[in-house]
Amino acid sequence: MAQPANRRVTGVLVVLAGAAVPLWFAAARLPAYQPADTLPWWLLAAVSAAAELFVLHIQVRQEAQAISLSEVPQILGLFLVTPAQFGVGRVVGVLAICALWRRQAPIKVAVNVVLVAVESAVAVLVFHALLAVVGDDTPARWAAAFAASAAVGAVSATCITLVVALVERALDPRDLVREPAMGAATSVAVAVVGLMAVVLLEQSRWNAILALLGLAGLAIGYRAYAVLNERHLSLERLYRFSQVVSAQPEVDEVLQTILAQATEVLRALHAEVLFLPGDGQAEAVRVSVAANNRLARANCAVSGPWLAATADGEPVLITRDTRVLADREFLTAEALRDSIIVPLRGEAGLIGALMVADRVGEVRTFDAEDVRLLETVANHASTALRNGQLIDRLRYEAAHDALTGLPNRGALRRELSELLARPQPPTLAVMIMDLDGFKQVNDTLGHHCGDSLLQQVAARLLAAVPSGAYVARLGGDEFAIVVPSVAHADDVLTIGHGLLLIVAEPLPLDGLTLAVNASIGVALAPDHAGDVATLLRRADIAMYQAKSLGRGVVVFDAAASQPDSPAQLALVGELRRAIADSALQLYVQPKADANTGKVVSVEALVRWLHPEHGQIMPDEFIPIAERNGLIKGLTEVVLRKAIVAATGWARAGERLSIAVNLSPRGLLDSRLPAEVAELLTELGASPSLLTLELTESSMMIDPAGAAAMMEELHDMGVRLSIDDFGTGYSSLSSLRKLPLDEIKIDRSFVMGIEESSDDEKIVRSIVDLGTNLGLDVVAEGVENSRIWQMLRRMGCTQIQGYYLTRPIPVAEFPAWLVDYRKRDATLVTVG
């Protein structure tokens, strides 16, 4: 209790003591009621002390009000002892309990003793004054006893209310009416028990045994109710605690909620969490809530009760009356009155401990029930901390590249959105950097060297970018650097060339020293674009221009064109119109069963017949579509045409699956599965008629996202195939985890199996791998019957290539199929 509160309570104490004197003086001048049989004062003191032990504690703000059986010795004293003995017995009994048993603070002892003196004086004064007026027959004595009890209850409740108000510095005027009324009613109710005891004793001394048994039963039942009520309230607080804690997703919010709720559940004033030292840490960390309601952290050594709780994994209880010297020294050093410390467990064992201290009120201290309650709180807290850490980790992983630890494309977009949303933002620069010859590093030295290269480049970029710049990995060997504020485009060129020099410094890879070059494209906001998508796209175009020009760093220029194709930028608008008008043509190339020669499926191929330039091959216009954000529309056109064709064949009795290639950027579109499902529903097509072909490299841009998307597509019934297998990143472990139906061997291996034993071994290994995994194996590039027969003997499932036919317009496919079936037996024979 703070010093100002002590002074205020001392003032009330002086007033009460001053009131007790005239009250006793007035009581002494009244005609004294002469009891028929008296009790010794010391026996009354003992009964008073016993009554004070059985108390129901009710919390009122930060203090505890006690409803006891003190009215029983009060009634006994009024009827069976003289007024002087009554006052002495009541005061001595209460003093013994408060000072010797409960060891209350001196000011608390003084308040209780003076309050009992006042109560006793009021009881004597009212009781004897009424008897002097109404007589001393039995009904009159009962009425006087009830009146005295009501007066004592009202006076006691009023005094306690005033003391609490002084400590809290807040008083509700309604309490001055409500509390005395409740005190008077309670005292009258308990006085009935005292009167029953008086009646029994007046009849026979032996009835004292019966009275004691009755009082003992009442006290025990009263105490049981108090314990049950406290447990009920604790369960309610624990339930609220688990609800509040589970609703917090962030670790810091969880910690703050745990500490706040722990104090409420345990009725404590203070709570702390100690986390044991982790890897590379020398000291533990104590976390508490500071005065500004924020978390405060402090490094500390693990010692004393903290060490006992975390070393043994057992709770530590330190009560206010502890006799253990080390515990008392701990309480003194921490400025605490009592405390409980329980272990805090994580997934891998003990991670720390949770402490609550300073139980509210002067009457009670922590006990074994509180220890069990805090252990339950700690279990909830451990679960909430694990959930919070898991959510934080998932959020981090969702926003960061697993290989380099850099923010990923999604995080970059969010960062750019926030920067562009600033009021009157300065010029912002987006730089996209692509490594030159990265594929050769993977093919020559292996993917583990490629991964190491990317990690070293990421570290160099982080160390070299200007302060405040943002570095992200977009996928593959592509990085992005955002400079939030630049004065001029020349400054960006300077930064870009500096980064290229840093990246080009020799790198150690697998015992070799390798120099890597890169190309950087720059787009400025708001000069080149004011939205994220356009800004990234134009930085990407500038990067391809830098790669083609060999100039290292290029700032986007809408009027510029690439030297190897002067009309290429002009084709962007024309391609956009061709996609919008669905003017692109669909071709198909069939795939046949390697054993029977029966056509079982086809691959969809897109062609663009330009009115001026004639037929433009996919190798030319698909990169344009990817760089200019047209690939999504192009994919939608091909999908629609392919599904319409396959559905039409199925209705005509030819059920053939049609395969559509997905671009690497298509796998980055999280809405792809939903859009495919909508398209299949719209066209009334079975999902099994559609096969989506993905390249190995496209799946490595965002492996987790690609795997999730493939699962969703596979679950709806769409078949999935890896195209150009053997040229990218796939391995047995990755194939085993992906929901694949088919792998396609790249034509570069198939076409050489007649002359190259190495190619033959590679193809045979891929066929064995696919068939052992239960996948269809398709060989591309089959150009004669000899290759076909070699593949069939290896166990290849399907073949595709010019030996069957070159790609043909989709409208001509049914007629071709009829003609093929007339000659397929000839094709399958050994050539």
What does this protein look like?
The model is unreliable at 57-66, 236-249 and 561-566 (pLDDT under 50). An eight-stranded mixed barrel has the order 16-17-19-20-21-22-23-24, surrounded by four helices. It is built from 28 helices and 25 strands. It has 831 residues and is an alpha/beta fold. 55% of the residues lie in helices and 17% in strands.
Keywords:
single chain, alpha/beta, eight-stranded mixed barrel, 25 strands, 55% helix, six-stranded antiparallel sheet
What can be said about this structure in brief?
The protein has 831 residues and is of the alpha/beta class.
Main sheet: which strands, in order across? 16-17-19-20-21-22-23-24
Q: Ranges with pLDDT <50 over ≥5 residues?
A: 57-66, 236-249, 561-566
Quick one: overall form? elongated
Structure classification? alpha/beta
Gyration radius, rounded? 44 Å
| Helical content class | 55-70%
Continuous helix count: 28
Number of strands: 25
| Overall pLDDT confidence | 78
User: End-to-end distance, in Å?
Assistant: 104 Å
The percent range for strand residues is: 15-25%
Most strands sheet: 8 strands, mixed, barrel
